[in-house]
Amino acid sequence: MSLSQTDLTRIALDITAGLSDHDRFSRLLDTIRQTLHCDAAALLQFTGQQFNPLAIDGLSPDVLGRRFILSEHPRLEAIARAGDIVRFPADSELPDPYDGLIPHQGDHLVVHACIGLPLLANGDLIGAVTIDGFDPQQFNAFSDNELRTLSAIAAASLSNALMIDKLEKQAVQSQEVTTVTRINTDAPVEMIGQSTAMNALKNELNVVASTDLNVLILGETGTGKELVAQSIHQLSNRAKQALVYLNCAALPESVAESELFGHVKGAFTGAISHRSGKFEKADNGTLFLDEIGELPLGLQAKLLRVLQYGDLQKVGSDKSLKVDVRIIAATNKDLKQEVLAGRFRADLYHRLSVFPIMVPPLRERDGDITLLSGFFVERCRQKLTLKSLRLDSQSLALLNGYDWPGNIRELEHVLHRAAVLSRAQSTSDSYLIAPQHFDFQAEAPQSIVSKPKSGAKALPSNQTLKQATATFQSQYIQQVLTENQGNWAATARALALDSGNLHRLAKRIGIK
After folding, report:
1. TM segments (predicted)?
2. Nearest Cα to 452, choosing from 482, 479, 480?
């Protein structure tokens, strides 16, 4: 069997039909998988010496949130350095980055067919397509030239997609400011998530970043407000200047004024030298005031003066100092209620909230828990220097059914603890995070924690509607799938669902 002109045309149309949409990348992988008859495929973007998955097919859903550093994955490094297609021997001793991450294939892909297609644009590596097959001779019928053609189509289309995305962001920014936006490329901030709520947040950041407006970031504890502040700064005209951080909640009132505005020698007992405050250090840059709702009232008046007139006085000095600072503030409090209660100045609130941004809680980010779980699990694997670390399907269902009152910070801590427990309890070099490794099972739906033995089982009455719905969907789909001998197409017909929609639903609730 070989690639026909029709196959190549279909692949080209799939990836060029809506390049900025993640669904188009998913459709490309689905087409490649059907055309090459592979069992797993991934479209990866190359950035900062690592591969970031854009779309996956036939792999565990949390792979989409993982980041594969070249130095830790020899096969991906070989693809990155080759400059041409790479056919790995079926018995290659190089570890596969997807070991344990292909459902129902155990911990290791010992003997299998594996091909890497580097994606190049103007001679530079921008990504890769990886294809895997369980039959060692699975791709022998496809010639190198056919695979090069496929690689060229995908590379050109991915390059166009990335360029369109860049131009769209520049267009949004140019509506607000005519100067050229300088992007800080050192350690760029990455915000993991593809949900509707996260896409809306990213659009807001692109709009406000290139202005000099003060920004007030609102949101629950652990939602990632500091990451939002870093992103705004890196996308702004001040990206080459300092981003200075100050936690107002950890600021003793006795030294708060000195921390913000600095002091001169002899201003008070212990002031043995001149000191610059946070405002002076952030001159021409950005000052991030975290937990602004905790700032003492007396200091709020002095902060307001700096925001109004752009000048400050160091403690113990009668001279004014001009500064040009953009303020980004953050709080988990309702500042409007704080104003009404007399704990926060109304005039300062209005100065800070020129452009308020609400960071959505994790429970409202449909689908992002799976991506974030993959991201944190891969980070844990790196920190703990493990060869392999993965989540089973029940664990993903459990994570997706929990409400996460502590949001992303809680998710990260829960997964790190689970990884440590998995390492301690495993006797092999491949580690699996299972439901018993989590410490919130009593608060989560028990029907997710305990896999049903047969048929649908009564749902507990203490679940939220979202949890109960996810539990029922998981149980019923698995029951119908079993009745159809694991055939997903037959299962979709039995459920009267579009096959693509069933696959996406199964991925979202963690059973595929």
Report:
1. none
2. 479
Question: How many CB atoms lie under 10 A from the CB of residue 422?
Answer: 22
Name residues whose C-beta falls within 8 Å of residue 89's C-beta, 6 or more positions apart in sequence.
none
Residue range 367-407, pLDDT digits in tens: 899 999 999 999 999 999 888 899 988 888 889 988 899 99
Residue with the larger pLDDT of the pair 6 and 32:
32
- Amino acid letter for position 427: T
Q: Which residue has 């190359």 as its token pair?
A: 46
Task: Output the pLDDT for position 108.
Answer: 63
- Report the CATH number of the 196-360 domain: 3.40.50.300
With b meaning 16 or more CB within 10 Å and e meaning fewer, what string describes 9-30? eebbebbeeebeeeebbbbbbb
Over residues 450-474, the pLDDT tens digits come to: 444 444 455 555 566 666 777 788 8
Tokens of 276: 């610059």
Tens digits of residue pLDDT in 251-298: 777 677 788 887 776 556 666 667 788 888 999 999 999 999 998 888
Distance between CA atoms of residues 73 and 298, nearest Å: 55
Q: What is the CA radius of gyration of the chain?
A: 26
Q: In CATH, which of 3.30.460.80, 3.30.470.20, 1.10.8.60, 1.20.120.450 is domain 363-444?
A: 1.10.8.60
- What distance in Å separates the CA atoms of residue 99 and residue 386, rounded to the nearest whole number? 12
Q: pTM score, two decimals?
A: 0.75
| CATH topology match: 196-360 vs 450-512 | no
Distance from CA of residue 242 to its chain's centroid? Answer: 25
Question: Regarding the domain delimited by 5-169, which CATH topology (the fold level of the hierarchy) does it fall under?
Answer: Beta-Lactamase (3.30.450)
End-to-end CA distance of the chain: 29
pLDDT tens digit sequence for 93-117: 888 899 888 877 766 666 788 999 9
How do the domains of the chain map onto residue ranges?
5-169, 196-360, 363-444, 450-512
CATH architecture of 450-512: Orthogonal Bundle (1.10)
Amino acid at 441: Q
